[in-house]
């Protein structure tokens, strides 16, 4: 089949041609936007899930919905080695410009507050030429969002931005990807700011996305975070949605799948959106003609698995040190041991940390540095005390095939 017309898109954060299985989240967000526009109270939103389930794609789709509602929007991706001030300032700069507030002096004041918030990230006593400039022409405000206490400053900043949005009868939405990588102080500041904004009734919301342990990160920061956010777990697609993600784009290109081919693809991908796109792309390229058959899927599977081994699994494994790789392999072996003993093991292969230590014949305390480093790199997470799991589905299976 013509590879130029191949509709599938197995890219990181790249929107697939058919965003299947996410109608519920999209509809719920439309309701949130409308309620806030009417002055009704609403909570900020947190999306959680494993790697490859489409959190970033959904986050971008929600931002598009906010743009269509004429909201001001900004997006940032959290990084463990970066504070919140600079990326958030850049995101809010974009959001304020999108609002299109008619009063230039009020806009300049808020932009000045954003600039002051951003420049507080510079070292104390830094000269003007050494201070980071967020690209804002307005002079930095004095005495607003520049105390140096991120919690106080963020509350003041979002209050001013929210007031600007309320003036024009719209809202501001800030989208934060990889939210679990924020520092503890920054997480605490976001929780405090969202709490204050919700009490004030200002039209500002935060939409965050992160790994499954993100709710625990938020809860550890502020006890009221469980009531502050609307949590939505983003999971793999069911059979109907996975079929739709394959069939609809193919239909747009006058192609089709045989039922047996769809069954084989679901068995191979388990409904994980990234895998669906990866297998679908290779199956299209391999198939000589439409409809794509189960035999085409079987022929294409090794190539799809090889691509995932390099781009999806291998790239993450390469980020680990030798000691960390040893820990990862021990997790995979421990999960296999539990499965052989008759225990149920899910796609994240959650295992007790004691089992990992047993595989390596080491004391659990001696493995803490490797485990903590893997947690910080986002390769594993702790869903409950004393257990550890992969953030990437089928990662254990990949490790066991590497010998």
From TrEMBL:
Question: Does the keyword Heme feature in the UniProt annotation?
Answer: yes
Keywords, sorted A to Z: ATP-binding, Heme, Iron, Metal-binding, Nucleotide-binding
Q: Is Cytoplasm there in the keyword field?
A: no
Q: What residue stretches are annotated with the Cytochrome c domain?
A: 166-317
Any one Gene Ontology molecular-function term assigned to this protein's record = ATP binding
User: Domain of life here?
Assistant: Bacteria
Q: Where is this region: Disordered?
A: 1-21
Which Pfam families does the entry mention?
A: AAA_16
InterPro entries linked to this entry: AAA_16 (IPR041664), Cyt_c-like_dom (IPR009056), P-loop_NTPase (IPR027417)
Protein name, per record: ATP-binding protein
Q: Which organism is it from?
A: Pedococcus bigeumensis
């Amino acid at each position: 089949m013509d590879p130029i017309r191949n509709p599938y898109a197995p890219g990181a954060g790249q929107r697939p041609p058919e965003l299947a299985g996410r109608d519920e989240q999209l509809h719920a967000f439309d309701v949130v936007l409308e309620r806030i526009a009417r002055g009704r109270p609403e909570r900020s939103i947190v999306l959680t899930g494993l790697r490859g389930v489409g959190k970033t794609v959904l986050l971008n789709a929600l931002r598009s919905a906010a743009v269509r509602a004429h909201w001001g929007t900004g997006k940032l991706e959290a990084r463990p080695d970066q504070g919140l001030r600079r990326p958030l300032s850049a995101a809010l700069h974009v959001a304020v410009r999108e609002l299109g507030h008619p009063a230039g002096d009020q806009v300049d004041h808020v932009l000045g507050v954003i600039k002051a918030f951003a420049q507080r990230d510079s070292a104390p006593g830094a000269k003007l030429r050494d201070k980071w400039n967020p690209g804002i022409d307005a002079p930095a405000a004095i005495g607003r969002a520049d105390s140096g206490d991120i919690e106080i400053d963020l509350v003041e900043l979002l209050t001013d931005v929210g007031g600007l949005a309320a003036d024009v009868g719209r809202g501001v939405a800030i989208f934060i990807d990889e939210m679990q990588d924020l520092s503890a102080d920054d997480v605490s500041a976001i929780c405090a700011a969202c709490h204050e904004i919700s009490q004030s009734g200002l039209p500002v919301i935060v939409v965050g996305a992160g790994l499954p342990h993100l709710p625990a990160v938020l809860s550890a920061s502020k006890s009221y975070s469980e009531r502050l956010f609307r949590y939505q777990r983003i999971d793999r697609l069911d059979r109907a949605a996975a079929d739709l993600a394959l069939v609809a784009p193919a239909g747009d290109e006058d192609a089709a799948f045989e039922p047996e081919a769809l069954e084989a693809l679901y068995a191979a991908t388990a409904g994980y959106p990234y895998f669906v796109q990866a297998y679908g792309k290779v199956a299209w390229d391999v198939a000589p003609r439409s409809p794509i058959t189960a035999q085409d899927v079987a022929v294409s599977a090794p190539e799809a698995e090889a691509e995932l081994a390099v781009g999806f699994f291998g790239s993450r494994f390469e980020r680990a040190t030798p000691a960390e790789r040893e820990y990862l392999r021990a997790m995979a072996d421990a999960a296999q041991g539990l499965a052989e003993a008759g225990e149920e093991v899910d796609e994240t292969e959650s295992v007790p940390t004691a089992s990992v230590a047993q595989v390596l014949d080491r004391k659990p305390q001696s493995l803490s540095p490797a485990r903590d480093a893997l947690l910080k790199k986002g390769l594993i997470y702790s869903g409950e005390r004393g257990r550890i799991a992969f953030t990437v589905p089928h990662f254990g299976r990949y490790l066991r095939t590497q010998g």
